Amino acid sequence: MGFVFTPLDDGQVIELGNTRLRVVHTPGHTPEGISLVVTDLRRGTDPWFVLTGDTLFVGAVGRPDLPSDAKKNADELHRSLHDKLLALPDDLELYPAHFAGSACGAGMSGKPSSTIGFEKRWNPMLSLDRDAFVAALSDVPAKPDDMMTILRENQGR
After folding, report:
1. Which residues span the domain enclosing 73?
2. Domain with 50 in it: what CATH number?
C-alpha cells in the first residue's frame, strides 16, 4: 500500500451517526475482500442492506482468478458466500459493485440490486456444491488485457 491506512477487521462496526456498518470479511474474489452490512437505526436495529463488492452479484459471483490462485480463491469464495452472506436475512437488500458488462464476473444481470433470498433461489452459482462451484469458476472470461497494469496501479507501484 502506497499510503497510510487503517485496515478493517471482520466483525468490526463503524458508526456514522444513525448508520452502522458491520464489516464481513468475504475473501474469494480477492483475499482482502469485504462486504458491509448496513443498519439505519432510524429504521430499526435489523440490517437494511449489504454492499457485497465483487463477492456476490445479481445472478453471478465474483471471479476468483484475477489476483492469484483461482482454485484456492474459488474455494474461499464458496465459503464466504455460504457461511457468511447467505446466512444473512432473506429480505436483506443486496447491492453489488457491478452489474452486466463488467469483467469481474460472468453472467451478471443488468439489474443493479437484489435480495439475499432472491439470489438464494435464482442465482445458479449458489445451488452448486463446493466441487461443482470451483469447477464452474474455472471457466471465466479472459483476464483484461491491462490486468497487470491495473494491479500495479492498485498496489501503488
Report:
1. 19-140
2. 3.60.15.10
